[in-house]
Amino acid sequence: MDSPWRQLLRNARRSLLQQRLRSALSTLGVVFGIVSIVTMVSLGEGAKQKAIAQIEQLGVQNIIVRSARLTEEQTIAVGRTSTGLSAGDVGALQAAVPRCDRIVAVREVESAVSLGKDLHPDVLATTADYAAVNGLVTESGRFLCDLDDASRAPVCVIGRAVAEHLGGQGGVGRSLKIGNAMFTIVGILRAPAAAGDGETSVTLRDLGSVVVIPLSTLGALTNLQLGRLTEIIVRAKEMPSVEAAAEAVTAILSRRHRGVADYQVVVPIELIAKEEQARGNLNMLLVSIAMVSLLVGGIGIMNVMLASVSERTHEIGVRRAIGANRRDIALQFLAESSLISLVGGLVGLAAGLLLVVVLSMFGGWAPVVEIWSIALALVVAVVVGGLAGLYPALRASRMDPLEALRHT
Amino acid sequence: MIDTDILLQAEHLSREFSGPASTVHALRDVSIEIRRRDFVAVTGPSGAGKSTLLHLLGCLDRPTSGRVRFDGQDIALLSDPELSRLRAARIGFVFQTFHLLNTSTVLENVALPVFYARRSLEGAVQLASEALRRVGLADRADHLPSRLSGGEMQRAAVARAVINDPLLVLADEPTGNLDTATGESIMSLFHEINRRGSAIVIVTHNPEIAAHAIRRFDLRDGAMRELT
Q: Do B121 and A401 touch (CB under 8 A)?
């Protein structure tokens, strides 16, 4: 007819159904435990992938040096004003950083272009390599080239959002007024892969809303010396040399600036490591929450099973008299507690997945559900049920058959 | 020498129950031999130790002293799984209060010893249906025991006891909760079981029931003698 295991499960199901309410209530702890496991894993994975995508957008081979304004207190403390990042720094880095592929200087020009209330694009003055280190691709036209820089050409490349805003005026070959000068649009950037707009440890420039012009042109037009740079990006030749290059950058700048911290060195691959570490701490917290729920759930199931064992003492006696051995009795109750917990696990899984979908809708990230997290949730549920049923099952199996039989 | 015609041999059985205040001697030095296809009745007043004797003979309990040999095997040497298997496959119990599982159907109740004896339910439904047919309960197979009359419940219990064609069927006051006519019909079932090859031991305080047996014993204050 069927195997002992199926017989076991069928009996377990029937006896659980006889106490529907009690069985349902006893699974609540497991349900909550599994919900927290599923949401925790998905939230963790979703946030992690988003953070890593954002960090990767900075370029994993890059070392980014940003200028930072000193606070008044700091200025007083060091006793002189900060000089900021300069072309001299770029030269020094170029000369001394090992395994350095490219160095790109960036200067941000504030409020040089205004396109109405909502759009204030960043104007970035930089060199042709900026596209390479940031992985930028043009949608139409071209990016800046070395010749633009050498000839101080009045040309610009605009981001997607800027082009959309300009509409017909935003095509390649049209002119754009930056500051007091007219620039020819030579290219439009492709919209960057959306990494979302949530907060991470790194603030990203919105590359949809930029206007990029040659660094030398900026100097010529404004008749200014190339003073402070906003950013210097050093790109290492390959991943393994990023760390050494980062150390060299830090050492060189520290010497040139005589210890004045008017700049900040950001190493994206280090950020990934930090991000993972932070994620690990958060996960520890969530794991503890899940553990507590599951512990409470397990105790609930154990309680219900103990009640069930004592209510069914007579049944145990009858089964023993007609030939059930201790193991049969133990398995009967273990099957029940595992089944009750598995059902709790399935309910928790469904609720957890629903929660993940809802949360991801509000959080603006793609729901990430790992197959292993589903498997983990169900295995955990069955294990909790099994452990919770262990003591009641042992108690049932150790009853004296005759005493159990006399019990009414 | 082991006489192969002897199914069960109990020698000098004593069973004491120690309570908090005193020790009760339920059985004192009881010996009995049951042959294959035997039909034995043990009578005696309540409290004489009849049920205790039956539990010892049915390998449900172990004696304080003395020895039980079942089918040539000393049951003191058997482990819990071996003893359980023996109960499932070779022994059938019928109780005064039926002891059916009231959450399972009649058919499932009857089929249960098949599962415990063979670790499989292969053919259990056919066997159980056949056993129910023999006791005249074929049309009650899917009922819950609570919907049966006392006589029907005892018939179901008899079907459960004999489903594995046991060597020994033990009955503890099987008619105690039934009216006389129903009791007689249950007794005729025992005769049929006996004809099919099982030895039967019935304990009862009712001399009319005991009169069905071939051999009769009287148990008083824990001591037994054969009535001839």
A: no
Per-residue pLDDT averaged across A395-399, rounded?
Answer: 96
- Count how many domains chain B has: 1
Q: Is position B20 within any domain?
A: no
CB A314 within 8 A of CB A405: yes
CA distances from A284 to A289, A293, B36 (A): 9, 14, 69
Structural domain includes residue B12: no
Cβ contacts of residue A354 below 8 Å, gap of 6+? none
Give me the residue from B80, B88, B121 closest to A322, CB to CB. B88
Sequence spans of domains, chain A: 4-55+274-406, 100-238
Closest residue of chain B to A329, computed from CA coordinates:
B116
pLDDT in tens, A299-354: 999 999 999 999 999 999 999 999 999 999 999 999 999 999 999 999 999 999 99
Cβ <8 Å between B99 and A405: yes
- What Å distances lie between residue A6 and A312, B110, B153, B203, CA to CA? 21, 18, 27, 38
> Which residue in A19, A67, A63, A408 sits closest to A236, CA to CA?
A63
Distance, CA of A328 to CA of B115 (rounded, Å)? 10
* Cα gap A384→A32, rounded to integer Å: 13
pLDDT in tens, A140-170: 899 999 888 888 889 999 988 888 888 888 8
Q: Which of A229, A261, A267 is nearest to A248 (CA)?
A: A267
Q: Comparing C-alpha atoms, which of B60, B52, B62 is closest to residue B25?
A: B52
Cβ(A333)–Cβ(A393) under 8 Å? yes
Cα B170 from Cα B57, distance rounded (Å): 8
- In-domain check, residue B5: no
CATH number for position B193: 3.40.50.300
Query: Are A316 and A309 in contact, with CB atoms under 8 Å apart?
Result: yes
Q: State the best of A308, A312, A322 to mutate against chain B, taking most chain B CBs within 10 Å.
A: A322
Q: What is the ipTM of this complex?
A: 0.94
pTM over 0.80: no
Nearest CA in chain B to A407: B99
- Test B121 with A7 for CB contact under 8 angstroms: yes
Cβ atoms of B216 and B41 within 8 Å: the answer is yes
Q: B2 lies in a domain? A: no
- Domain span at B132: 36-61+79-227
Which residues does B46 contact at the CB level (< 8 Å), separation at least 6? B205
Are the Cβ atoms of A324 and B84 closer than 8 angstroms?
Answer: yes
Backbone angles phi, psi at B144, to 5 degrees: -85, 145
- Distance from C-alpha of B203 to C-alpha of B172, rounded to nearest angstrom: 5
Residue B98 Ramachandran class (φ > 0 left, ψ -120 to 50 alpha, else beta): left
- CA-based angle A83:A88:A93, to the nearest 5? 115
- Classify residue B36 by its DSSP letter: T
Distance CA A119, CA B46 (A): 101
> Among A59, A84, A384, which Cα is nearest to A226's?
A84
Tens of pLDDT along A108-142?
Answer: 887 667 676 677 788 888 988 888 888 788 888 99
Dist CA B46 CA A217 (whole Å): 117
**Cα–Cα distance for residue pair A180/B61, rounded to 1 Å:** 107
